[in-house]
Amino acid sequence: VVRVLKAHLVMLVKQGLIGQDAGARCLEALRQVPSDLPLDPALEDVHMNLEAYVAERVGKEVGGQLNLGKSRNDQVAAALRMVVRDYLIREVFALCQLRSTLLDRAAEHLNSAMPGYTHLQPGQPTTLAHHLLAHHDALARDTGRLIEAYGRINLSPMGACALAGTTLPIDRELVARLLGFQGLVENSMDAVSSRDFALEVGSHMALTLLDLSRLAEELVLWSSPEFGFVELPDEYSSTSSIMPQKKNPVVPELVRAKAATALGHLVALYTLVKALPLTYNLDLQEGNGHLHSLLKAALESTKIMVPVIQGARFNTDKMASALDSGLTATDLADYLTLSYGIPFRQAHQLVSRLAAEADKAGKPLHEVAKSRLQGLLETALGRRVDIRWPRVLEVLNPVRSVSARRLVGGPSPEAVAEAIHHRRSLLEQDLSWAKGAQEALKEADHRLQGEVVKIIGGEKRG
Amino acid sequence: VVRVLKAHLVMLVKQGLIGQDAGARCLEALRQVPSDLPLDPALEDVHMNLEAYVAERVGKEVGGQLNLGKSRNDQVAAALRMVVRDYLIREVFALCQLRSTLLDRAAEHLNSAMPGYTHLQPGQPTTLAHHLLAHHDALARDTGRLIEAYGRINLSPMGACALAGTTLPIDRELVARLLGFQGLVENSMDAVSSRDFALEVGSHMALTLLDLSRLAEELVLWSSPEFGFVELPDEYSSTSSIMPQKKNPVVPELVRAKAATALGHLVALYTLVKALPLTYNLDLQEGNGHLHSLLKAALESTKIMVPVIQGARFNTDKMASALDSGLTATDLADYLTLSYGIPFRQAHQLVSRLAAEADKAGKPLHEVAKSRLQGLLETALGRRVDIRWPRVLEVLNPVRSVSARRLVGGPSPEAVAEAIHHRRSLLEQDLSWAKGAQEALKEADHRLQGEVVKIIGGEKRG
Amino acid sequence: VVRVLKAHLVMLVKQGLIGQDAGARCLEALRQVPSDLPLDPALEDVHMNLEAYVAERVGKEVGGQLNLGKSRNDQVAAALRMVVRDYLIREVFALCQLRSTLLDRAAEHLNSAMPGYTHLQPGQPTTLAHHLLAHHDALARDTGRLIEAYGRINLSPMGACALAGTTLPIDRELVARLLGFQGLVENSMDAVSSRDFALEVGSHMALTLLDLSRLAEELVLWSSPEFGFVELPDEYSSTSSIMPQKKNPVVPELVRAKAATALGHLVALYTLVKALPLTYNLDLQEGNGHLHSLLKAALESTKIMVPVIQGARFNTDKMASALDSGLTATDLADYLTLSYGIPFRQAHQLVSRLAAEADKAGKPLHEVAKSRLQGLLETALGRRVDIRWPRVLEVLNPVRSVSARRLVGGPSPEAVAEAIHHRRSLLEQDLSWAKGAQEALKEADHRLQGEVVKIIGGEKRG
Amino acid sequence: VVRVLKAHLVMLVKQGLIGQDAGARCLEALRQVPSDLPLDPALEDVHMNLEAYVAERVGKEVGGQLNLGKSRNDQVAAALRMVVRDYLIREVFALCQLRSTLLDRAAEHLNSAMPGYTHLQPGQPTTLAHHLLAHHDALARDTGRLIEAYGRINLSPMGACALAGTTLPIDRELVARLLGFQGLVENSMDAVSSRDFALEVGSHMALTLLDLSRLAEELVLWSSPEFGFVELPDEYSSTSSIMPQKKNPVVPELVRAKAATALGHLVALYTLVKALPLTYNLDLQEGNGHLHSLLKAALESTKIMVPVIQGARFNTDKMASALDSGLTATDLADYLTLSYGIPFRQAHQLVSRLAAEADKAGKPLHEVAKSRLQGLLETALGRRVDIRWPRVLEVLNPVRSVSARRLVGGPSPEAVAEAIHHRRSLLEQDLSWAKGAQEALKEADHRLQGEVVKIIGGEKRG
Q1: Maximum separation of any 2 CA atoms in chain C, in Å
Q2: pLDDT tens for residues B113-147?
Q3: What own/partner pairs with CB < 8 Å and gap ≥ 24 does B198-201 have?
Q4: Does the structure show a pLDDT above 60 at B462?
Q5: pLDDT of residue A327
Q6: I need a labelling partner for B440 at 20 to 30 A (CA). Which of B29, C291, D68, D383 fits?
């Protein structure tokens, strides 16, 4: 907020709307605002407090000039956009770090076979690496959305004043530039009344939390002794002294809950704005707290998942033992079709029969296959066949099955290694976007400080 | 959905995974699927019904091949993405039409002065054109968001199968191309379990409805006899035969309500997906209806606002009479500061005093100014001044005040005319994006039909 | 709706506001309205269609009388309240049936020990019966809320007309009585504009779905092979022919999803009504679909859970094997405190140490206790002690531990049997409330038919 | 929370589970807990901090006893229920005060005629008193819901321990009684995992805010110069020094926004709990903040509306001038039907024609009636008629029309006066419920303090 006032003052001086002297005195006062300025609740908000602070130091006459060519409405909107853009950039950094962590852990587990689930039932064999990559890819899209939104967020509403601008010859572009904005929210009524920028970023961050909630849910599930696929680092679990085997996955539980929190704040924001006539209405003020809580929940949740994933000890033995040859029944049907020319439909029926027998007998599919496949296949084809048992066993082996899924996006170690490689370079791009955006803001701030110094110095020399 | 099956079959034939003959027979059967295929509820969903339809015609042996290298999970995701992308393109068209209408109406009303409101209190003078442009600009951002999202939506999940792809040598890119997708949702687990694409477009369309709800609210307010700023076309109002003066603004009321509907469906979608472990769970099926209702509400609301805005009769006299010189009090303070060198703060106090007297006396500000300004100003400055009365009256004239707000994004007729001009060219860009996207889908479909004909023909010749 | 018109007509005749003859003709026409009256969309809604239907049969002159002393606004509110009360009563019946089923299944499993979970980690030993009762009790509260709401729902808005009643001497109480309402929504503006009755019942039914979603979640979890605690009946699962061991718990997944659906509709309803000025606005019409979908989702979900629970095959062996003596560590600490006078804190530390050693060694707690307890205890107490081993083993036995939790509301078989007994009689009360409410509505309807017959007959005789 | 610990300790002593001495020392320590106990964030929550505080004072040995027969899970649930019941009672008090204010203001305005609106169009004539009563009645239902909920909220979960109770012979009823609870949440798993009590009260308070948002919306509308029906007290508006005629209705805007806030927190709470397996999961902790914010928003909004309504200056002249004789067109049709025997339909058409002519000519209906009614009526009836002009003018007079709406719940001054009288006695009942509930809690607390003193004293004497 202080920055907004400074930029506005610099512009007023440059446009000759206030004197160099008055400008310098106000800027000097603003430079001394302590970062922990105590707020007088009687003065409504931080904007009023700042103005009172300045007025006290430079006198009401001079301090009053601060309000030339601006109002609380455009200033509030500008300050909010600056808060949002900062969160956005920090979230992109946090997402990049989490994605990097997921890629690292995936790279360790290219060969860690495990069941992939549908309906929480094992469905097909996959690997932990492939599974972690699914989460990574969702977070990569989350990052992309934020980056694309930035251009719509990082625009200056300054100059819109109460709602219809001013008759004074102010320079909106200059203020924008000094504040690091990439352009203007042109229409002055739109500038003070629109909050879609907040809802857009809020929606994106809520989606990020939604994706995190699915990862968190799996960590909770996998931490149960029944699954036993993962043990979370002690620092991110809570333990019971008397039941040391029990480690409550409290961090994932909290992250899961934060998705609900984000949705709640988003609903509040949306409902606030619904059917609000233009332009500024006080309802919008109530939205600031919701937005802030939402963005904070997303940022903190993203950050805390980094050490949780880094420190997770995956139990690959338990994962492997959750695989059974039933998962490769489809592979066997495919194999029979391609190798023996039996129509897919018939192959499918034949394997179903084997699987049913295996299920009934409580035996693995490959054992039942051994004793029954040849007979069933010969009956189906009406001719003698030569079963290549090593090949059949290979087909039924879940680990082999994974290796054979070499298609783009599939779980084979080669495909996943390739995917990780590719993702690392995309990650690099996102990261350098974030660095660039951050750098641009710093430069703008630097420029602003420079102008401030020039005006103060000029006055002192004068 | 039929298209997805066709593309998949073409690929299977091209990869040699099923015979030309079997492929041709299946494709032939798919071509004959009536658009109103009666659904047997015992068969769960449209996918199962389609497969049963084909199997009935070509026999179970051949029909069964359809399932080689795909599953319902990737097929459902592909079909949903195709529905979403179609809605998205149609919404962009509808938004462009509504924006064009708003620009047209704005162009008619460059000089129609009216109060701009904050807190539903007149705040500063503006024009109807400027006000309509504020709504236009919000809708322009809504369009931009959809266009940017398209690249994340229009990707093919086909080939992901149940969740881990297949061991068969399928060609995912070919299927994607034949279906008009611009690329793949690579990771196969991600491909079947993610629904962020639905939530992203859903959020954007909900935001569009939110913006429309604000426009609708103003139409409802302005239709009240108390405001009397607008009369909506009869076809979009409901009238009472016995009270002909009463025209209920039912269409804006409904559009306003649709924002609530959109939020509801969005909340349902989000809550469905929250904390859902990977990959496919049946919960996702429940989301399809919500998504469809949401997108439909947005599209229909956008479309119906076009003739409402086109046919609205604005009562510019009533608007003008709602202006009063109190709205230009700030202008007077600015003028005194710049012309007489009185500090802004003091000028502000002086004008406040005039305004308070005017309010108390129930007179317009300019009348009170006439009798009191000179005295107050001379006291304040401690010297005689020469008031240029014509200029002061001009400053206090709301219409003149509007003209003087020439800054970028301000309400002066020149600034607004310039803005309209600029927006027309941006609109043209968005429109040509939509045409391009539509064209690309048509071409892909054409290509697919070509391949189908080739296979069926080849078989017939053979 | 037809019923509302009939009751209104009977009243008009009785009050002498329309003639016996005209009344009889209208009533006759209404009696012939086919239940599947085809709706002409040009006539806005079902009310207008009905009036057109009657007017066509008895002429516009007579048919027009229908509108004397009522309007669409009160009629719509009355019809909606009648829909809501019907759903409410049916939901109470469905809840009673589901509760009865849960009590039956609980009664079968008084001794089926299993772990109770916190954070999805086994926390303390309990029984399946006790666990099912927890779900029962939530549903019992859901029932209670609906029953209490009924008195606020079942009130007649008829007579409020458009918003301010009428100058005609109508009899509001008579219409209310004929429609089975227990009283009036007195204030006529309130009567046509309030929808809190819909939101109240909607909230209650959404809460019911929330409770069902938790039960459903457990069924999904327990159906996974990792838990393996339950096998759902085939009719309520979907199976894969090629993976017969895989049974997807689709019904619980759908019920879980319906909680999201309910929340979405509730949010839409709430947001619709928010900040709506009195009295009727068309926005309210949009709410009807949301309310209907919400109530239907709750009713169907409640009903379908009955056969799911009835047919669930619980695997008590798997449940028992998920218990381990770590769950009774706290019991041992309690025992040591009470039996050996060692302060609770110290007892707790001692047992923690045993548990840590057991965890490290991968041995059950009771084995480690056997070798180490005596030494540790003697060190702690500084004297020799006599360990009663049979008692210690008993204390550490989870099944025994359950039996010892005899407190009110605890899991011991006696406490649970007692609880079931008590709940059966409360269930009986709720059920007889539902029967009474249903009966009262039937009687009112009977009375209305009687009056209709009397008027039509009187006219015919005349 | 301190109270919960005290009650638990008293019970432990009474049951002989800990010694009188140890109990007395712990209780003494608890009595000294400062109300602003500084919280050490390392200790997770206030419960842990309290236990550490006690342990520090009485030693770990004795302090550890505190945990005998309870856990954080039941204690958290108990504390939350106590918070909710306090809010509930305070909200009932606040609602009673606001209702009383509305009744007072209504009593002042029995004869203040104004238009009642549908679709924000004047629909029928009513009075300000009748209008205020509509809001009152909604708030009366809100009060009723809270009172009914109390019995489900005010139950003790203590004794449920972690989830399955304890093997110790604790006395749950005694703890409940000492804490002012009316009974137990019996089932121990239900006791620690259910949060429907929070959602129930949360829903009710959100509904209250929804009702307040409609009242607030009307205050905002009515404050606009276009309506001009009300002027809010300065203390609850914000004014602009330079535009003294402008008074922003900031308090109603904020209350309107709080309805959005309440919905957001409710959605968060619901989504948190959705599909959460039993029993306690950390997600529930995230709900506490949402619940607290929701209840606080409702309570503060209810309270602040009291002085706003008390201080509102209604402009009854402006209201009266918004009435026009078009509003009584229906009355005229009714009159013609009843007095001249012309069928209602025809009367309706005839009046419609008059109204259309009046609208076209820009004249009031009664003027046009004067010149045209006789002719039209005679044509319609085919005979000469005698128009009783004074009666017709009376019928068309909106103020007279209001007086004639004498039906129960109608706007006639008599009907409204009667309604106010009746509501005052219902209000008295609700108020005395609130006093009774508050009294009962105080008594319980008194009893608890008595027992504490007895134990501490007993020990000191001992």
Answers
A1: 108
A2: 999 999 999 999 999 999 999 999 999 999 999 99
A3: B198/B80, B198/B84, B198/B269, B198/B287, B198/B291, B199/A207, B199/A210, B199/B266, B199/B269, B199/B270, B199/B273, B200/A145, B200/A203, B200/A207, B200/B149, B200/B152, B200/B153, B201/B84, B201/B87, B201/B88, B201/B146, B201/B149, B201/B153, B201/B295
A4: no
A5: 85
A6: B29
> What confidence tier does C221 reach under pLDDT thresholds 50, 70, 90?
very high
Q: Which residues of A touch D166 (CB under 8 A)?
A: none
Q: pLDDT tens digit string along D207-253?
A: 999 999 999 999 999 999 999 999 999 889 887 766 766 789 999 99
The answer to whether the CB atoms of C278 and D134 lie below 8 A apart is: yes
Q: Is D433's pLDDT higher than 80?
A: yes
- The residue in chain A having the minimum alpha-carbon distance to the alpha carbon of residue B221 is A277
pLDDT at residue B231, as a whole number: 94
Cα–Cα distance for residue pair C251/C219, rounded to 1 Å: 10
Give pLDDT, residue C244: 64
Give the three-class secondary structure for B244: strand
Would you say the pTM of this structure is higher than 0.90?
Answer: yes
C248 close to B (CB below 8 A)? yes
CA gap C412, C402 in Å, rounded: 5
Is B159's CB within 8 Å of A67's CB? Answer: no
Chain A CB within 8 Å of residue D283 CB: yes
CA–CA distances in Å: residue C338 to residues B186, B203, D60, D72, D321: 62, 60, 18, 22, 83
- pLDDT surpasses 70 at C459: no
Q: Which residues of B are catalytic?
A: 119, 240
Task: Examine the residue annotation and report whether A156 is marked as an active-site residue of this protein.
Answer: no
The position carrying tokens 């009242």 is D215
How large is the angle between the packed helices B250-273 and C283-311, nearest 10 degrees? 30
**CA dihedral of A346, A349, A355, A357, whole degrees rounded to 10:** -110
Which residue out of A256, A261, A291 would a mutagenesis test of the D interface target, given it has the greatest number of D Cβ atoms within 10 Å?
A261
Q: What is the pLDDT of residues C24-50, one digit of tens each?
A: 999 999 988 888 887 776 666 777 788
Chain B residues close to A60, C-beta within 8 Å: 345
Chain C interface includes B283 (CB < 8 A):
yes
Secondary structure of chain A: what % helix, strand, coil (to 5)? 70, 5, 20
Q: Which residues of B touch D250 (CB under 8 A)?
A: 119
* Nearest chain A Cα distance for residue C436, angstroms: 40
Put simply, the answer to whether C264 touches B259 (Cβ < 8 Å) is no
Q: Does B248 touch chain C (CB under 8 A)?
A: yes
Active-site option among A224, A238, A240, A432: A240
Per the omega criterion (within 30 degrees of 0), is the bond before A279 cis? yes
| Interchain contact, D243 vs B327, CB within 8 Å | yes
Is B144 close to A159, i.e. CB distance below 8 A? no
The string of pLDDT tens digits covering residues D369-418 is 888 999 999 998 888 988 888 999 888 888 899 999 999 999 999 999 99
Residue among D274, D284, A252, B279 nearest C217 (CA): D274
Question: How many angstroms away from the CA of B289 is the closest CA of chain A?
Answer: 20
Share of chain B residues as helix, strand and coil, in percent rounded to the nearest 5: 70, 5, 20
Distance from C-alpha of B383 to C-alpha of B379, rounded to nearest angstrom: 7
Render the burial of B244-263: b for 16+ CB within 10 Å, e for the rest: bbbbbbbbbbbbbbbbbbbb
CB distance from D321 to chain C under 8 Å?
no
**Contact (Cβ atoms closer than 8 angstroms) between residue D288 and residue D202:** no
Complex ipTM > 0.85: yes
List Cβ neighbours of B388 (8 Å cut-off, separation of 6 or more). none
Kindly identify which residue of chain C lies nearest to residue D171, measuring between CA atoms.
C407
What are the pLDDT digits (tens) for A26-52?
999 999 888 888 777 666 677 778 888
In the structure encoding, which two tokens stand for residue C140, read together? Answer: 């019992």
